[in-house]
Specification:
Layout lengths: L1 E8 L7 H13 L1 H5 L4 E7 L3 H6 L5 H7 E4 L1 H4 L25 H10 L4 E6 L1 H12 L4 E5 L15 H22 L2 E6 L6 H10 L3 E3 L7 H11 L7 E6 L27 H13 L3 E5 L11 H19 L5 E6 L2 E6 L12 H4 E2 L4 E2 L5
Helix pairs in contact: 1-12, 8-9, 10-11
The structure holds 6-O-phosphono-beta-D-fructofuranose.
């Protein structure tokens, strides 16, 4: 029996995606494993996520060439070292209620001879995979998002690389902040989950960390900064998550636009926090929005390893016919969970467990 696997990456890019594609391909095509399998795989990559499956015309060889890349060991050999996604990505939603193209996607999957789709993405991409699965398409998911907000897994590709970037940039800021005796407000990504800000801030030793899960108050921030002045400390680093809420209500968005999944782009809160600090305390404050730097560069060791394990596990799931599920990392083990449980919910920071609401920082008691 032969089986065609189609791999795609959807949503925001990040380091680790190429590794996952490589390890799906290598595992599926492994000649030693193939001997003991009753199935022989071939693997194709779909370009630009679900957009590729919406736009491809399977009857037109030129269009197929434009949207599909045949994958083999030679093609993917070096991919795990590189960030981004060599397949490209998009935020296309075939189930967009304003323009539902799901029937086209299903038809194209069938016409391309695809037996199973491996979707690498976050809640939106996996949500589409799950809907297709319910409509009869065999699908498995691999978790990816620097936001770490996917339910059902304690790790998603990209997070560790992004935290390392936050740490490195804050290390850089410290020398200039210290030289000028300034406060720096550093804005991280993360949408409505504070994991990036919290872990990035904790590993960098930030003085204040603001996360969406706990509303913050400017007066409290100013008190914390005043308390610190006069001590040996010359400057302070404040890490703020893009989704943090001033006074518990005010969110900051870049513009009014909605993407195909109904999300608006968050951003800009750091400027407000820095401005308020200057106005209220007279301390000099600057801000830095790390933005897409957090998704750039090559994958960390952890992301390379997790990409490998997730890619291998996705092929195991196909062999076990565990469709409609997402690879997951739980309690130190690679396992899988039903995609149904993963979508339309977010895994956010448990404030009682991980956040100190008095000092606006990570908890100082752990056990
Ligand atoms: O979900 C990943 C993420 O990087 C978020 O942290 C951020 O809010 C968003 O994507 C940015 O999206 P875009 O790349 O479309 O600007």
């Amino acid at each position: 029996m032969t089986m065609r696997i189609a791999v795609l990456t959807g949503g925001g890019d990040c380091p680790g995606l190429n590794g996952a594609i490589k390890w799906v391909t290598k595992t599926a095509l492994d000649p030693l494993l193939e001997k003991n399998r009753s199935v022989k795989f071939d693997v194709i990559g779909i370009k630009e996520g679900w957009k590729g499956l919406v736009e491809v015309d399977p009857d037109d060889p030129k269009s197929v060439k434009e949207h599909i890349i045949p994958l083999d060991e030679e093609v993917v050999r070096t991919w795990d070292r590189y960030g981004g996604t060599n397949l490209g990505t998009s935020r296309t939603n075939p189930f967009n209620p304003k323009k539902d193209r799901s029937a086209k996607v299903i038809e194209n999957i069938r016409k391309l001879g695809v037996d199973v789709v491996v979707a690498i993405g976050g809640e939106d991409t996996l949500g589409v995979a799950y809907k297709l699965y319910k409509l009869g398409i065999k699908a498995v998911g691999i978790p990816k998002t620097i936001d770490l907000d996917l339910v059902g897994t304690e790790y998603s590709l990209g997070f560790d690389s992004a935290v390392n970037i936050i740490m490195e940039e804050i290390d850089r800021l410290r020398t200039t902040a210290g030289s000028h005796n300034r406060i720096f407000v550093v804005e991280t990504m993360g949408r409505h989950a504070g994991w990036l800000a919290l872990h990035g801030g904790e590993c960098s030793g930030a003085y204040i960390i603001l996360i969406p899960e706990h509303p913050f108050d400017m007066d409290r921030i100013c008190d914390l900064l005043q308390e610190r002045r006069g001590r040996e400390i010359q400057y302070s680093i404040i890490v703020v998550s893009e989704g943090a809420k001033l006074g518990g209500v005010q969110e900051f968005y870049k513009d009014e636009k909605l993407d195909e999944f109904g999300h608006r782009s968050l951003g800009g809160i750091a400027a407000k926090v820095a401005d308020e600090i200057e106005k209220r305390t007279g301390f000099e404050a600057r801000y830095v929005i790390l933005s897409h730097l957090q998704r750039g560069g090559s994958p960390s060791a952890r992301d390379r390893l997790m990409a490998r394990w997730f890619g291998i596990a996705a092929v195991d799931m196909i062999l076990n016919e565990d469709y409609g599920r997402m690879v997951s990392y739980l309690h130190g083990e690679i396992t899988s969970v039903p995609m149904k449980e993963v979508i339309e919910r977010l895994r956010v920071v448990d404030v009682d467990k991980y956040y100190d609401i008095d000092r606006y920082n990570g908890k100082r008691t752990i056990l």
